[in-house]
Recover the amino acids of this structure.
């Protein structure tokens, strides 16, 4: 056998999945469970479930009270823009910015981690469905293009993924926030109950407990996972498997099939396109440790490298057929970047509950579903926002601003501080063609690959909405009898919602979209893109559950097509 | 997304640093300096002595351990060295110098006078912060913050003064404070 065919044979699989985050984990599970020999490529280091170095550490085990050092800030200055991720307890889940540079025409915050599991380890786990209010929005408003999908098509897939990952929450029967298949909800605390009641009585608006991918009950199909122990240390990785991550859940399932080959340290930089077959035959990778370049081949390829990860690969995959990037006949690849705009809302103090407290650390808050531009409600902007927030009693940090010092302080601190409550808006971000990302071929990273340049901004619709986001929050907090109500708007750059999406949108018309309604590249049938790139509008809810549902559905479709001989 | 806010970091560079020589205790009556409970890496011995005493005044030993017992002075030394920017370090040291000068040599005061002086500077600083007269957090409040962080992230601070549970097991959202007892450390 000659060397080439040998290589061809050893490096050939039924399917390739690029990325091991939320989308890649799902693609790997579904493909392997359907019997496909699947190669899963991940650019970052290997991490196995339970290998979470800081998960069981107590506060006194971290130097500097868990704060970042100046050296940390030098290495991870961009990742630290969140203000809460670069800590001694969690910094290892976020990239080194010096080694992973990108360019900003305007400030753009790209928050990410390169390792097996991706951001499924660090995500906030809030999980909500889009509904027809969202799927029909572009068509009704004449914005961008119509979603090629309606709620009833995707609803069974939402059911399917919710049941598998386990989502704790409360069904409320709302049109704008479809019900789901939930595990027992977590409790609201006293002050949140008060706000819920006041909002319903005075505004007819709902406040519900956050819907979150935590196990409040055991899952029969995932015996390796335990229930949540209310430690609120999820960002470090959960040794109980209390919340959903690729490591605790989908990659475990894929492993069980015996059909998965997981290759870490494998930076996919290009899809291989075969002009005569009109198909992609595989991918090219560069080993992150050795620099060696290798090709892998498969019948079907799933790009799940996160929105910008997959877009980078596609933009970098040029050929005579695709001179402007893979599948980019429409010219939309890299455009229509969306996120959720946030860091705007209101806070207040809640007097009158001094003799009440709580026990346990609930890694979840409250949710206020969108109420704007629904039914008779009309605003001077399109779409709307929801709120996430919660109430708690202040702890020892609040003593900095109290008069006591000495023995008095030690005494006073043992009584919990004042109750405070906050509502922070998550606003829908419209898709604008001019909000885009593209390759800078001159500026290369340490692997010699071109870097990404972002040119994204909030526009009028988002700005108008923000005014409403802080105003409405303040109004509802005041109406509940809370005091010292303060509005805030920290004008953040886009990206900080960490819900980046839209760069390879789906649609009915190949002239205006990159993917069809099954996440399949219009112009190359055996390539599917199932991370946030496919999104046509952002809605105002956290998106990852939607990526999971579309991923599972895309695999199902791909398998059907394969059986029919269409791939 | 997490709701916690970013720590506000100081914006403007303060020009050039304060000159280093911390007054060579001339002309002062000699009082035996209390022994340092740690080996400073960032502060000089005089600065370290002041930081130690102020921390202990903010959180003294009572029937539970105090700041010095749990290593807060060393914690502050390390944190200012590793986590503060050069500008913030300079500002901290300048504030410390001013604090010391205001007492006409803090370490020369007897303990009661030290406590009274810390209390006075602290109360004035809080009043100024609250009235909006002072924008930057003054030295004494930075000291207070660092002392609290060091103390309540320590095991004795978290488990003896406050209460701490590594694995709570459940969440109960609305319970009488009397059932819970005291403030949670985290
Ligand atoms: C702090 C935080 C809080 C969040 N909270 C929420 C929330 O509450 N709810 C919610 O819905 N979402 C939340 N998100 C967003 C959520 O994490 C993402 O939407 C989700 O992880 C996206 O899944 P993904 O698979 O597309 O990408 P990722 O999870 O980022 O995974 C992509 C993977 O691909 C790998 N990769 C990238 N490029 C390549 C390449 N060229 N070759 C090989 N591999 C590659 C990466 O290393 C990574 O492992 C949060 C994110 C963060 C960081
Ligand atoms: S809060 Fe629950 S899911 Fe999060 S780390 Fe703790 S036990 Fe795990």
């Amino acid at each position: 056998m000659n060397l080439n065919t040998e290589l061809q044979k050893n490096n050939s699989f039924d399917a390739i999945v690029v990325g091991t985050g939320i989308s890649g984990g799902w693609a790997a599970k579904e493909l392997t469970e359907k019997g496909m020999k699947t190669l899963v490529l991940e650019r970052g280091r290997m991490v196995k479930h339970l290998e979470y170095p800081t998960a069981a550490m107590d506060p006194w085990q971290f130097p500097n009270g868990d704060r970042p050092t100046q050296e940390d800030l030098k290495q991870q200055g961009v990742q630290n823009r969140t203000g809460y991720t670069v800590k001694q307890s969690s910094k290892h889940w976020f990239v080194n910015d010096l080694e992973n540079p990108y360019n900003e025409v305007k400030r753009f915050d790209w928050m990410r981690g390169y390792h097996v599991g991706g951001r499924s380890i660090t995500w906030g786990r809030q999980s909500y469905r889009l509904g027809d209010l969202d799927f029909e929005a572009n068509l009704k408003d004449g914005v961008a293009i119509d979603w090629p999908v309606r709620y009833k098509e995707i609803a069974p897939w939402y059911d399917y993924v919710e049941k598998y990952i386990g989502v704790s929450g409360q069904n409320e029967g709302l049109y704008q926030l479809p019900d789901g298949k939930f595990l027992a909800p977590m409790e609201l605390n006293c002050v949140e109950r008060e706000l819920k009641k006041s909002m319903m009585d005075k505004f007819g608006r709902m406040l519900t407990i956050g819907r979150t991918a935590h196990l409040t009950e055991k899952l029969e199909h995932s015996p390796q996972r335990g229930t949540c122990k209310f430690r609120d240390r999820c960002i470090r990785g959960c040794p109980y498997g209390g919340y959903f991550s690729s490591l605790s859940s989908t990659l475990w399932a894929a492993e069980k099939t015996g059909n998965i080959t997981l290759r870490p340290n494998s930076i996919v930089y290009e899809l291989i396109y075969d002009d005569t077959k009109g198909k992609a035959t595989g991918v090219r990778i560069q080993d992150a440790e050795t620099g060696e370049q290798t090709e892998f081949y498969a019948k079907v390829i799933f790009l799940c490298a996160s929105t910008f990860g997959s877009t980078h690969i596609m933009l970098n995959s040029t050929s005579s057929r695709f001179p402007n990037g893979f599948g980019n006949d429409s010219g939309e690849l890299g455009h229509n970047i969306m996120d959720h705009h946030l860091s705007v809302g209101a806070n207040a103090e809640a007097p009158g509950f001094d003799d009440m407290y709580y026990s346990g650390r609930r890694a979840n808050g409250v949710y206020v579903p969108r109420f704007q531009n629904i039914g008779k409600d009309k605003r001077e902007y399109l779409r709307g926002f929801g709120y996430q927030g919660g109430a708690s009693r202040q702890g020892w940090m609040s003593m900095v601003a109290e008069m006591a010092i000495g023995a008095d302080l030690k005494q006073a601190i043992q009584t919990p501080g004042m109750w405070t409550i906050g509502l922070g808006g998550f606003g829908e971000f419209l898709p604008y063609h001019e909000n885009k990302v593209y390759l800078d071929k001159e500026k290369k990273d340490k692997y010699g690959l071109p870097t990404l340049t972002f040119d994204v901004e909030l526009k009028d619709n988002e700005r108008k909405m923000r005014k409403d986001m802080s105003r409405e929050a303040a109004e509802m907090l005041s109406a509940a009898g809370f005091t010292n109500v303060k509005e805030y708007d920290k004008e953040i750059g886009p990206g900080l919602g960490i819900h980046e999406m839209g760069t390879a949108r789906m649609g009915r018309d190949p002239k205006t979209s990159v993917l069809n309604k099954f996440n399949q590249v219009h112009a190359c049938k055996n390539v599917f893109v199932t991370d946030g790139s496919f999104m046509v509008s952002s809605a105002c809810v956290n998106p990852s559950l939607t990526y999971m549902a579309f991923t599972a559905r895309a695999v199902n479709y791909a398998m059907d097509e394969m059986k029919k001989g269409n791939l | 997304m997490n709701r916690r806010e970013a720590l506000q970091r100081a914006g403007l560079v303060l020009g050039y640093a304060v000159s280093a020589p911390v007054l060579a205790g001339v002309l002062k009556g000699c009082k035996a300096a209390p022994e340092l409970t740690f080996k400073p890496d960032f502060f000089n011995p005089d600065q370290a002595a002041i930081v130690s005493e102020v921390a202990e005044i903010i959180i003294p030993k009572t029937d539970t351990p105090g700041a010095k017992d749990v290593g807060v002075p060393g914690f502050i030394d390390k944190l200012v060295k590793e986590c503060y920017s050069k500008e913030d370090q300079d500002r901290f040291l300048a504030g410390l110098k001013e604090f010391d000068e205001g007492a006409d040599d803090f370490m020369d005061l007897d303990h009661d006078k030290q406590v009274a002086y810390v209390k006075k500077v602290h109360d004035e600083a809080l009043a100024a912060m609250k009235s909006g007269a002072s924008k930057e957090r003054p030295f004494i409040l930075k000291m207070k913050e660092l002392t609290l962080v060091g103390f309540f992230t320590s095991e004795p601070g978290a488990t003896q003064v406050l209460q701490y549970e590594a694995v709570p097991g459940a969440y109960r959202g609305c319970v009488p404070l009397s059932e819970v007892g005291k403030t949670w450390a985290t």
About this structure: Chain A touches chain B through 68 residues (CB under 8 Å). The first helix of chain A runs from residue 3 to 10. The mean pLDDT of chain A is 97. The longest strand of chain A covers residues 293-303.
